[in-house]
Amino acid sequence: MSLNINNLSVSIAERQILKDFNLSVSRGEVHAIMGPNGTGKSTLAKALAAHPDYTVTGGTALLDGAEIIGLEPDAVARLGLFMAFQYPVEIPGVSIANFIRAALTARLKESGGDFSATAYYKALYAQMDALKIPREFTSRSVNVGFSGGEKKRCDILQMAMLKPSYAILDETDSGLDIDALRIVADGVNHMRGPGTGFVIITHYQRLLNYIKPDYVHVMYGGRIVKSGGAELALELEEKGYGWVEKEFGVLV
Amino acid sequence: MSSQTDDRSAQEKALAVERDVGNFSYETSYDFDAGKGLSERTIDYICDVKGEPDWMREFRKKALKVFNDKPMPSSWASPDLANIDFDRISYYMAKGRPSRSWDEVPDEVKKTFERLGVPEKERAFLAGVEAQFDSESSYSSMKEELAKQGVIFVSSSEGLMKHPEIFRQWFGKVIPIGDNKFSALNSAVFSGGSFIYIPKGVKLKQPLQAYFRINAEEMGQFERTLIIADEGAEMMYMEGCTAPQYETSALHSAVVELVALKGAKIQYVTVQNWSASVFNLVTKRGLALEDAEIRWIDCNIGSRLTMKYPAVVLRGERARGEVLSIALAHDGQHQDTGSKMIHAADNTSSNIVSKSISIGKGRATYRGMVQMPRHLKNCKNNTECDALLINTNSRTDTYPAIVVRGEGNSVQHEASVSKVSEEQIFYMQQRGIPEAEAMSLAVNGFVNDLVREFPMEYSVELRRLIDLEMEGSVG
Predict the structure, then answer these.
(1) How do residues B5-22 score in pLDDT, each as one tens digit?
(2) What is the residue extent of each domain of chain B?
(3) A75, CA 20 to 30 Å: which among A31, A49, B40, B343?
(4) CA–CA separation, B345 vs B316, rounded Å?
(5) A251 close to B (CB below 8 A)
(6) Among A83, A92, A102, whose Cβ lies nearest the Cβ of B433?
(7) Is B404 at the interface with chain A, CB within 8 A?
(8) Does B420 touch chain A (CB under 8 A)?
(9) Where do the structural domains in chain A lie, given as residue ranges?
(10) Measured between CA atoms, how close is A215 to chain B, in angstroms?
(11) How far apart are CA B358 and CA B297, in angstroms?
């Protein structure tokens, strides 16, 4: 059971960003993708999630064997792909509890199942307790007037409830203080297990102090140029991205 | 990827189909029918059939003259008004015999009833296959309870005949004949509507519903409702429903007058879903005396053109007025709604919250009038109007008319126009919610704080109706 990305090429507004990108992530693994700004890290996340601004010009992405390229964003999500946003969007008037319920209902509709309000709240409260989220949190409108940390908490709670098979964290750590960073890390570590594969996209190494990755990939010029274990992240932290440019600059 | 023009025409096609869902009508035969067109003879016919007293006959004839003399509102109102052909309208029909069966009701309509969760026993009545809403069992116990408290809850005709002393004292006082062309028309030919009197100090816990006494005759297009809450009395009235109603006429022109005496509280809740060919031109006004409170909660969906500006005249000190309204304008529809707050005593306060949603080429207009004359002190108004545009060709306009003079009077006005952004839709879709549902969710969120103010069963129906209306609005 894996997410297989083969020779994926992606453009935004006619400009090619990803070039023959390859990556395979199995459930239960944590992959970190690092690299300088503008190398296509976020493009990878958005293209897999089928954001309408991103055009896939070539390649495939198989989620447990099913092609997800060309599907609507909601169909990709229901197949089991979750994306944590760098900038979560506000939805005025829609409470977190109702929002997550709508997301779960959309999945159940497909499988023909149903669940009661009591069963839903029982499940929701269990996850909130595990993530140490106070009860009043879910009656607030999704992300409206939230602090950086609250937005992350909201995304992490959604992830815990939706139980994706693959979760992509799209630079979700940028601009976060240490407490907010911990919320993200605790959420991922809480879910870590054989059911879910993680792709953590980050510019900085510091999130990886809290989530120990199984693999680290360095991205440059729209493709992965170097892969290794957790120690690669530390090496990048020490040496910066300058050497990547020097070594792989020819590819751009 | 299709071009933008293709998208639009496809969308219009989808919307046109959607729009026809609420449109259905049947041939009906009536025992009494004043025929088409309007003259003194029409009025004599109505008065004779109803056996009305002479003063009412005179009142109606005077109103007819005012209606004929008054020009159509033109400078500010929709030019679409000119398309009403008054000679082709039937002004009075009574005792209709439905000549159709449930089997003849279009499947689309049946499906809509189901999806809105309209109770089984109400469906046949709403679809016009039963003349009488079978509510006797639930009504009789309620009737007894109300009678014990001295509450009068009858049709306006019955009010006129059986309770002339209270009826005549207030009828046509809050909204005089000549208020506007359509209040004059209603005054000339009204039939149906409710007459309600709540005695001093009686506080009704259950809302009174038009449903409980309505029948096909009284669902007429020229309803007249008069509600009087005596000193310290409290009541809530609910009219309409979210289900599509079978069509009786192309013109609905109602008049609703509320009188809240000292310390009384009246809440008037309306949820209406007109078919897309109807002109809905309604005058609603309440008079609030000392320490009284009048609250209009109004939801307008459907119709070709709705013009409705519920008003409160704050006549007594410390009186409070409030209008909460939701308008939803679909393709080809114009919701021209708003509110008037006329401050006429010291220390009065008013609050207006209006939210509109325009879908496709739908247009929502807000008109608000707030008046505080120079001699008054410590009056307050708060106005908030928010518009949500769904498509790029949707339209909204805001026309506030605020006249505030005098010391210590204050007005606060906030207006906003927003769109459901692509990023919001993508965020929701990324969680697995299909695009159309995501749009519904965003729209429901937009009106959520107002929907919460509606009585429970209405708010549930309202949310479902918004879901239905949003179908086909994206793509």
Answers:
(1) 344 344 333 333 333 444
(2) 4-470
(3) A31
(4) 5
(5) no
(6) A102
(7) no
(8) no
(9) 2-94+164-251
(10) 26
(11) 19
What fold does the segment set A2-94+164-251 form as a domain?
Rossmann fold (3.40.50)
CB atoms within 10 A of CB B50: 17
Distance CA A195, CA A210 (A): 20
Return the number of other C-beta atoms located less than 10 Å from residue B142's C-beta.
15
β B224-229/B194-198 pair status: parallel
Quote the pLDDT of residue A207. 92
Nearest-angstrom CA–CA distance, A124 and A121: 5
> Encoding tokens for residue B391?
């498509």
Measured distance CA(B105)–CA(B127) in Å, rounded: 7
ipTM of the shown complex: 0.96
Sheet holding A15-26, edge to edge: A15-26, A2-12, A54-63, A66-67
In this structure, which amino acid lies at residue B78? S
A141-142 and A91-95 beta bridge pairing: antiparallel
Strands B255-260, B234-239: pairing is: unpaired
Neighbours of B275 (CB within 10 A): 20
Q: Which helix or strand (DSSP H or E) is residue A100 part of?
A: helix A96-111
Higher pLDDT, B286 or B467: B286
Q: B68: which 2 tokens?
A: 């004929």
What are the start-end ranges of the E strands in B187-262?
194-198, 208-209, 224-229, 234-239, 251-252, 255-260
CA distance B277 to B15: 14
- The answer to whether B395 and B364 have CB atoms below 8 angstroms apart is yes
